[in-house]
Structure formats: C-alpha cells, structure tokens
Design brief:
By secondary structure, this protein is an alpha/beta fold. It has helices spanning 5-31, 39-48, 63-70, 82-91, 129-139, 175-185, and strands spanning 53-57, 74-79, 96-99, 112-118, 140-151, 160-163, 170-173, 187-195, 207-214. The chain has a single domain (5-214), classed as Vaccinia Virus protein VP39 (Rossmann fold). The chain contains six helices and nine strands, in the order ααβαβαββαβββαββ. Strand 2 (74-79), helix 4 (82-91) and strand 3 (96-99) form a beta-alpha-beta unit. Helix 1 (5-31) packs parallel to helix 4 (82-91). The longest helix has 27 residues, at 5-31. It is globular and about 55 Å long. The mean pLDDT is 94. Bound molecules: S-adenosylmethionine.
C-alpha cells in the first residue's frame, strides 16, 4: 500500500530540516515552561496508575522522550522521519526510537500506559484525526493517559485551519472539537491547559494541551 501524500510530504520535509530542528527546537522546548507544563502531570498520573510504557509519537529528535525518561517513566519515540530517528538515536543512545506512523503503531492492543503527541498531530489533515485518535485508544491500556499538545484555533465552529508552518502544511485545531473527537473514541477528559495567544509572539496562536484517559472498565463479581 502506498503512503498517503501528506505522510510522504511530511516525512520528506522533516528529513530535510532534521539537523537544524535538532539544534534549535530542544533548546526552545526547555526554555519555555508552557511547552512542557503538562508533562510532569501526565507522568505523575501514569505513575499513580501503576506506571508502564509510554510512546512519544512524532518524537522528532527525541528531546521530549528524554524529558519523559528523566521524570522516571520508560519511554520510547516513534517518528515518520528516518533522519529524525537517526538524530534521536545518536543524541539519546540510552533510549529506543523507531521509524513509524502514529495511526498504525507497531504496538499490541492496550500495551501502553501513556501516549504523548507533542506538536506532532499538526500535519494530520482534519479528516484523518479520528482514525489517529482511534489508534491512540487502541494502544492505551485501561487507565492509560493521552497528552496532546497543539496550536489552537479559538473558534469552536471550525475544527481546523491550515497555517504557514515553516516545514510542511500544518493545521491548528479547536480544543473543544478535538476533545469531542477524543470523547468519540471512548477516552475521557482529565484536564486541559490553553495558553493565551499573547504568549506566542510569532503567530499569536493559543497553545492547547489536552489530557485524556482510557476508562477502567469495572467488572461485576
Ligand atoms: C513539529 S515536530 C514535533 C517534534 C517533537 N514532538 C517536539 O515536540 O519538538 C513534528 C514531528 O512529528 C512527526 N510526524 C508528523 N506526522 C507524523 C505521523 N503521522 N506519524 C509519525 N510522526 C509524524 C514529524 O516527522 C516531526 O518529527
């Protein structure tokens, strides 16, 4: 089966910028507390639910995977771009990184305690989001957590709007509409953080972080 065009284009674009991205973005991630404000909460909830394996999907050069690892969870990274995965492996040789796509993860059903997608759904066309979220639900164990970070669109009449992202065609999404799609897969909302557009001097977009959980099904004795 051939890859959809958006995956081919996104992979080629990130392969081309990978070294520059790895020099610039991890430092910016560390410098802006909003970028990773929800990560300790995500990790804390995973640990409170017994721990387990966490996938960082669309991991880029692996700095967020390394942050998860530093907080005490067993994390691995998956990315579409072989160049990004090559850099992630050389920058963080102690961690596992794999080339792969987020809507067809090479993971057994219910195998993960957590899925993180930090600014990596931004290249997924709106009509493909439901399939991607269904995949996140499939791989999460009952009680497992999903954290999504993405540039937001503050009008819930619209699911998505494309914007002039420097690397490849990208979208910002309405947090309410994304939450609706996640609820539709059977996940439940735990928390959300929406950062004011004034905090984004470049584009003036709000930044959204949505934390969801796969419900634990109670069995009657
Ligand atoms: C903006 S970067 C974010 C990287 C990292 N998560 C961070 O926070 O800096 C988006 C990354 O997602 C990857 N990506 C985009 N769509 C993907 C998909 N469908 N499956 C796997 N990776 C994808 C890209 O190759 C790129 O490395």
């Amino acid at each position: 089966m051939t890859k959809p065009d958006f995956l081919t284009a996104t992979r080629a674009a990130y392969d081309a910028v990978a070294p520059r991205y790895a020099e610039d973005i991890p430092e910016r991630y560390r410098a802006n507390p909003f970028n990773h404000a929800m990560i300790p909460v995500f990790v804390g909830l995973i640990q409170a639910h017994g721990g387990g394996l966490v996938a960082d999907v669309g991991c880029g050069p692996g700095h967020v995977t390394a942050h998860l690892h530093s907080l005490g969870v067993t994390a691995f990274g998956v990315d579409l771009s072989p160049e990004m995965i090559g850099l992630a492996r050389s920058l963080h040789p102690e961690l596992r990184f794999e080339v792969g796509v987020m809507d067809a993860l090479k993971v057994e059903d219910a195998a993960l305690a957590g899925v993180l997608a930090n600014y990596s759904i931004i290249h997924t066309p709106p009509e493909r989001l439901s399939a991607t979220f269904a995949e996140f639900h499939r791989v999460l164990a009952p009680g497992g957590h999903l954290l999504l970070g993405f540039p937001a669109y503050d009008d819930a009449t619209k699911l998505a709007e494309s914007f002039d992202h420097a690397v490849s065609l990208a979208y910002r999404y309405s947090p309410d509409r994304i939450a609706e799609l996640l609820l539709g897969t059977g996940l439940t909302e735990v928390a959300r953080l929406v950062v004011s557009p004034e905090e984004d001097p470049k584009r003036g977009f709000p930044q959204a972080y949505l934390l969801f959980r796969r419900a634990i099904v109670a069995h009657m004795e």
